What we know:
By secondary structure, the chain is α/β, with parallel strands linked by helices. It is built from ten helices and 16 strands.
Amino acid sequence: MNEIFMLRALELATLGRGHVSPNPMVGCVIVHGERIIGEGWHQRYGEAHAERNAIFSVRPDDMHLLPESTAYVTLEPCSHYGKQPPCADLLIEKKIGRVICCNDDPNPLVSGRGFNKLRAAGIAVETGVLAPEGRELNARFFTFFEKKRPYIILKWAETTDGFIGAVGGKPVKISGDLSHRLVHRWRSEEDAIMVGTNTARNDNPSLNTRRWPGKNPVRIVIDNQLSLDQNLNLFDGSQPTIVYHQIDNENLADRPNIFRSFVTRSAGPFLNQLLTDLHQRNIQSVLVEGGATLLQSFMDAGLWDEMRVFRSQTMLDKGRFTDAVEAPSVRGTLASREMVGEDELSVYKNSPGG
């Protein structure tokens, strides 16, 4: 029964996707005997955590059952004060009988302290139930703390004959409307979205979530020589934009809508430094929607975690587009494949050695 109730907690946790970062997604189910008497999830960053929502969803007539009940929580209860008080303290205060979790919290502010606090109060603790599923749920959170960088998702659409677009020309529509809407949902679920200089110049993207109800991500563009026109949509001030460049002593006082970062090559590879800077900015995930050059640079460096590739029924006749750009070669392990309208969506995960 433990796995059944934990699956429900994991299901609840996903309801916070796109709303709780930089916190992890967490779900909690409180069970007495084989009956669920309370459940909750972390709904929005800065608001009550899953355990608190679950406990206060218990009916007043059932509150006396908590000392005989089990709390199924997808991640170790927090033990420190942040925007909310420690969940471990609340579980102790309510004298919960037992706590079962998927994973230890990798955040050094917690990292075992929550479990230690519960055990010291006499509460039985069990960990590792559906641990792989718990890590997958919060892959961004674990990557951020364990690898000291954001979780990287590479996304592109390619034609049936293997092209991603045309260089120096107008953008070529490849995937369908349903796929485009799905991409906007993905944008709302990630902290940031990244493009390179050519994509910014040729496509003039807005990189927002206008086709999906959700938050806009932080926009990131790599513009090494600061050559992009400041009238592009990326610089309209509607959402934060970070520009990574290599021009020192640039006067940016007249560009208040842009958070610019100078990244030098002297201390190591450019992408590593860029991702270290994003880590310091507390950005946990990046959706890379750049062109072939930017995508390939992440692949060559092994700095990616997931690929999402649309393959449409469109044919890009290279005879008509002599400068057509070939799509990157997929790598990693196929995790899923499905149809999105008339497009085939394949998701790959980075395997060891990526």
